[in-house]
Design goal:
Layout lengths: L9 E5 L4 H17 L4 E7 H7 L5 E6 L6 H9 L5 E6 L4 H7 L4 E6 L15 E2 L8 H11 L15 H10 L6 E4 L12 H13 L3 E4 L5 H12 L6 E2 L6 H10 L2 E5 L2 H8 L4 E5 L4 H4 L9 E2 L1 H8 L21 H16 L1
Parallel strand pairs: 1-2, 1-4, 2-3, 4-5, 5-6, 7-8, 7-10, 8-9, 10-11, 11-12
Helix pairs in contact: 1-5, 1-10, 6-9, 7-8, 7-13
């Protein structure tokens, strides 16, 4: 089926998760909006991710709540009953998303190229984006905007935050304060750095005149990690783990001077706010999943690790395996990056 760009009036975007990925997708959506300001956009999104993006301008959200099990697919079909979109952007390679896409009626259904269209995605699409050899996830997403004729693919973000949340962040970190925000917890514990090493970097930052604030979600594991960092630190840290909503956290990350984080959603949230991020990587290729505007600030042992695990060159998205890989990242490496970023901020 031919894709006639001048006939597109409605678009449905399917990207359910995760926080980092929906941050990348926002840049793509807003690139499309710059090209087609009158286009009606509907975004099928996960319940948690919606809490971050619910104030996005010009976008209608339909929540897909995976916690409902099989009912989630019936509820999605009910929510979209009688609607037919000109274009579906199927932007998630997962069986869950492939099944969810069957509830979305669209004339043109764009997915990844055949190499990347795993989990049956290629079965439910009739157009593919151009293949890319070594894209960052964000660049992979921008391929969907390019397929719609968008030529300005430079990422920009405008994620609205309620005024009350902005004020909350400014009270926590007044303008002019130098703050290092540590978002220590990744979604998988093996991607977490060691608490005593976070503590060592925190102590160094405090010695340089920075406040250090721990941020993160309300899970028991995140709270425990924050407590372990504090226990290993001789200085008193400000612990905000579990005490912010996603939009409050976004505002806090904007007020921060520097953010330190492993491969986790808040690192990408910080990128959307223009805050420099020191990313810690061992399991995944930072060229693919690193904080997009701070790739020069990443501390990574991925290349070293992957060469020890594979004799031959590996595919771009290959993950390294092991529960102790993050131990290879040394405190001195992170402090060196901190000093470099701090000097850049000082001008």
């Amino acid at each position: 089926m031919s894709l006639k760009l001048n006939e597109i009036n409605s678009l449905c975007l399917l990207r359910l998760s995760a926080i980092g990925d929906v941050c990348h997708a926002v840049a793509m959506v807003q690139a499309i909006q710059r090209k087609y300001p009158q286009l009606k956009i509907t975004w099928v999104i996960g319940k948690v991710e919606y809490q971050l993006l619910k104030h996005l301008e010009g976008v209608e959200f339909v929540i897909f709540d995976k916690s409902q099990g099989w009912r989630s697919y019936f509820n999605l079909r009910k929510a979209l009953a009688g609607r037919r979109f000109d274009v579906l952007l199927h932007m998630q390679v997962a069986l869950r998303a492939t099944l969810a896409s069957m509830a979305i009626s669209a004339r043109v259904r764009i997915g990844f190229d055949r190499f990347r269209a795993k989990e049956g995605q290629w079965l439910v699409t009739n157009h593919q984006v151009e293949p890319q050899d070594t894209p960052h996830v964000l660049e992979g997403f921008m391929g969907f905007a390019k397929a719609l004729g968008v030529t300005d693919l430079s990422p920009e973000w405008n994620i609205p935050v309620p005024l009350a949340d902005t004020e909350f962040a400014r009270q926590l970190i007044p303008d002019g304060d130098r703050a290092l925000v540590i978002c220590a917890a990744a979604s998988k514990a093996e991607r977490n750095w060691l608490p005593e090493r976070y503590a060592a970097v925190a102590q160094h930052a405090i010695s340089k005149g920075y406040r250090v604030i721990l941020c993160g979600g309300p899970t028991t594991s995140e709270k425990t990690l924050a407590e372990d960092i504090q226990s290993a630190c001789t200085e008193v840290l400000e612990n905000m783990v579990g005490k912010t909503s996603l939009t409050q956290l976004l505002a806090v990350l904007k007020q921060a001077g520097i953010v330190l984080a492993p491969d986790t959603g808040p690192a990408h949230m910080a990128v959307t706010q223009g805050t420099p991020v020191i990313g810690l990587y061992a399991h995944s290729n930072p060229g693919r999943t690193g904080p997009y505007l701070s790739l020069d600030h990443v501390v990574s042992v991925y290349d070293t690790v992957i060469k020890t695990q594979h004799a031959e060159p590996v595919a771009w998205g290959t993950r390294a395996k092991g529960s102790d890989l993050m131990e290879q990242i040394q405190v001195e490496q992170v402090i060196e990056k901190f000093e470099r970023v701090s000097q850049e901020l000082a001008g």
